[in-house]
Amino acid sequence: MNKNDAGQVFLRIILGLTFFIHGVSKFQGGIGNTAGFFDSLGIPGFMAYIVAGIELIGGLAVILGFGTRIVSVLFAVILVGAVFMAKLPAGFLGNGQAAGYELDLALLAMSVYLACANTTVLSLDNMIFNKKGK
Question: 26: which residues sit within 8 A by CB, 6+ positions away?
Fold first, then answer.
């Protein structure tokens, strides 16, 4: 494994962990509250369950390196939605009452990178499908 692979594994674990924790938080805080927030933004409330599920299950999958490309695309879609539907009015750094979209933009960049990158030696995809960095 070279230093680029090591960096990619680090990004994958941090991105997966971040989304996993956000998914857990949505369920622990009462998914109904998140559904209500989605409704207040004009997004159907049932989408909260889908987003939280993708964050939770997808986060774990990305940590393990299983389906990283597909899950990273789903993360990117969620992040673009979050920026344009909830965070854009607050600005890049926030407005003192609401968080800005700087973190979402950083996570989006990580997601796009992982969606485009080759698999690494330390991933389930590589172990299961015997991909050698391709």
Answer: 34, 48, 51, 52, 55, 56
